[in-house]
Design goal:
Radius of gyration: 27 Å
Strand content: 15-25%
Bound molecules: ligand 26V
Largest sheet: 9 strands, mixed
Shape: globular
Number of strands: 24
Structural class: alpha/beta
Strand order of the largest sheet: 7-10-11-4-1-12-13-17-18
Helix content: 40-55%
Length: 796
Amino acid sequence: MSHASLTDDILRHLTFTLAQTPEGASRQDWRVALSLALRDRILVPWFEADAKVRAAGGKRVYYLSMEFLIGRLLDDAAINLGLQDDARRAMAALGQDYADLVEAEPDAALGNGGLGRLAACFMESMATLECPAFGYGIMYEYGLFKQGFKDGQQTEAPDDWLSRPNPWGLVHPAAHYIIPFKGEVVTENDRPVWRPSETVRAEARDVPVIGWGGTWANTLRLWRAEPTTPFDLTRFNRGDHVGGAEAEMQARSLSRVLYPDDTSYQGKELRLKQEFFLTSAAIQDILARHLAEGHTLNDLPDHVAIQMNDTHPAIAGPELMRLLMDDHGMEFADAIAIAQKCLGYTNHTLLPEALERWATYLFGSVLPRHMQIVEQINQWHLQTHPTRPHYVGVVKHHEVRMGELAFVTSHKVNGVSALHTDLVKKNLFPELEALHPGRIVNQTNGVTPRRWLRMCNPALSGLITDTIGAGWEADLDRLRELEPHVEHRSFRHAFGAAKRTNKVHLSNWLGAEMGVKIDPDAMFDVQIKRIHEYKRQLLNILETVARWKAIRDNPNAGWVPRVTIFGGKSAPGYTVAKEVIRFINDVAVVINADPVTRDLLKVVFPPDYNVSMAERLIPAADLSEQISTAGKEASGTGNMKFMMNGAPTIGTLDGANVEILQEVGRENFFLFGLTTEEVAARRENPDHAKEAIEASQPLQDVLQMVVEGRFSPDQPDRYHGLVNRVWYHDYFLVASDFASYLEAQGEADRAFADPDRWLRMAALNTARSGFFSSDRTIRGYMTDIWDIAPTTRGTA
Ligand code: 26V
C-alpha cells in the first residue's frame, strides 16, 4: 500500500465522509480522515479473521472487563498495519504533521489503572497471536476524570472524550439486547419465571483491534445503554418536560460514567447494575453467536472460553446458568457443569477493602432470579464438598461474596504474578484451594511491546532493529541478542544517546507544561501509578526531602543531579491519598524555589497522568520506582514497561518485581525493604514505626521539618495529621523501610555517577525484558486456561 493511495483515501474521507475541504479542514478533521483511511485497511483482515474462525468452527475467547484503558489508537493502528511511514509521508504531502494529528486524539480512558490497561494489552496481544477473541466492556460516555491541581490539591472534572469525534467505535445495529432488572420471580408450570420491572437496551459499539503485522483483527465490543421505552411524549405534552425524558436518563445512566474508585469497594446499586448490564449483554451475545453458528448448548465449552477480569463480571456464571435453565430448559447440574467449563476468573487484588461483596437485600432486589441461583450454587457446592468449613461460602452474613462466587463457577482461577498467586492460595482462598487443588494457577502479567517500546520509544526501537534486525516486536525474547552488544562501547554509547534524546524531549515538554527548567543530564527518577497508601508515594517524597536537606547541609559533596517525577490520580473520596498529592506539590514548590539546590534537585508532578503521559515519561526514565509494601501489589505492569525501556528498578520484593529481579539479576536492580513475611512479623511489634524513626536521624529530621511547617508556611500545622500517621498508624511501614530505601537510593546515585556502569545496567534491563511481553502471558492463558492451541507466530 503506497502513501499515494493513502493520500487519495484521506482526501476522499475528508471530502465525502466529513464534508470538508482541505482548506477548511481542522486538525481534528485531518485526524479523523487519516484514522478512517487506516480503519478501511483493517476491515478486510477483520472480516477475514471472523470468516476463518467460523469456517474452522473453532473456539473463541471472550474477555469480560468493566475497564479497557486504551489510550490513543491512531499511531498504534498505523504501526501494526506497517503504515506509519506511509501515513507520515501522506500527511506531509497534504501539508500536515503526522505527529501533530496523533496528539490530537483524545485518550480513551475507560479504566482506572493496571487492571484496565492489562485488558487493553491483552486485546492487542490476542490479535497479534491470531487468537480469536472478543473483548466485552462498556462504552462509558465519561472516562476517568480529568485531574487538575488547585493550590496543590487535586480537582476533578468530567472526561468528555466523546465531544471530539471517535472514528474507532463502529455502530453495530444488529447486536442489541434487552437487559432486565428488579421485579419478582413467580412460579409457572413448576418453573421459576422472572418478571422484571425495569429494562434497558444494550447497543454495540465495535472497536477493531488490529494485531502486529496487520493480518488479524479482533473485536472490542463496548455496550451503550439506551432506553427500551421511547421518549414519553404524553408526559411531555402535558407540560412535564423533564419527566418526559426520565426513563431515557435512567437507562443511559448505566453507561454514563466509569467508577473512579478502585481502592475501596462500595455497595452502590448503580455499580451492580453496570456490572450486570455488561455481563448480561455479553452472555446473550455469546449464546446468540454460538446458536447462529449451528452449535448446540451442550457444545458450548468447545467453542467458548469466558475470562472474567476480576470479580466485576462474576455474575457471568449465574447469568449463563439462568439463560440455560430458564430460557432453554436445562437442569441445574448440567448448567453449572457447562458454566464451569467455560469460565475462568483472574484475581487482581488481595486488599480486603477492594473485594466485592454485595448485601443480599440489594443483590436480591436488583437481580431476584440470580439471588436464587447464587443460593443454589452455594448449596450445591456445600453438598458436593461436605468438608467445607462453616465459615466458607458464597453467601455469608447476608452478603454475596463475589470472589467465592467466581471461584466456584470457574474451572481455573489465576493470580497475576508468582508471588501474588502464592498469596491467593495461602491467604485469600486457602480453604477453596484445599477443596480444589490445581484450580488456582499463575499467569504473570505482561505488556504489549508494540505500544510500550516500538511506538513510545522510536529512538531505542530503531537502535534495537539496527542491532539485531527486524521482527523482535513479535518475539520479544530476541532482545537477549542485545546482550553481547552491551559489551561494546559503541552500542552502549548509542543506547545512551537514545535515552538522552527521550530525556531532551521530556525536558522540553515539562518546561512548556510546568514552567520548570530541567537538566536532561540529571537522573530522571519516575513514580507513576494511582496514588495509594500501599504504593507509598509518601516514602518517595520523604526520601526526596531527606535528600534536599542533605544537599543543603553539604552542597559540594558531589551530588548526582536528580529530577523526581510523580504522576497519578487519587480516587476522589480517598482523603489520605489526596493529602499525599497536596504534600508532594507543596514540597515541590519549596524545593524548586531553592537557589542552593536548584541545579541538583527538582520535583515535578504534571497533572492528569494518563496512558499518553506514560508514553512520554517511560522512555525518558532512568530509574523506575516500584516501592509498594511487600505483599500488596498484585503484579504491577508499569514496572515491566520501565524495564523494557532501559530504566533499572528501585523496588521491594513485591508483585512481578520478584520476577524482574530474577530476570535482570541482583546487580542490575536496586533492592530494598522488608519481605512479605518480614512485613507480617514487623506489624506484630506495636512500636515498629516509633523504633524505626528513633533509629534513623534523617527520618527524624524530615518529619521534624514537616511538623514545623517548612512546606506549608501559610499553615504550619497542615501536615500534622500526616506525620502523626507515620508515627502511630503506619500500616504500610513507611518508617520501617525508610533507612533501607535511603541506602538503595544512595547506591543508585553511585551507579549513575559512573555512566558506563549505568548504561550497562540500563541496556541489560532492556535485553532481559523479553519475558514481560503480554504475548507470553496470552500464550499461557491459551494453554493453561482456555485450551486453545497457540500458533507459532513470533516464536520462530
Ligand atoms: C476494584 C473496584 C472496586 C469497585 C469499584 C471499581 C473498582 C475498580 C477496580 C477495582 C480493582 C482494582 C484492582 C487492580 O487494578 N489491580 C491491579 O491489577 C493489575 C493488573 O493485574 C496489577 O498489575 C496491579 O498490581 C493491581 O493493583
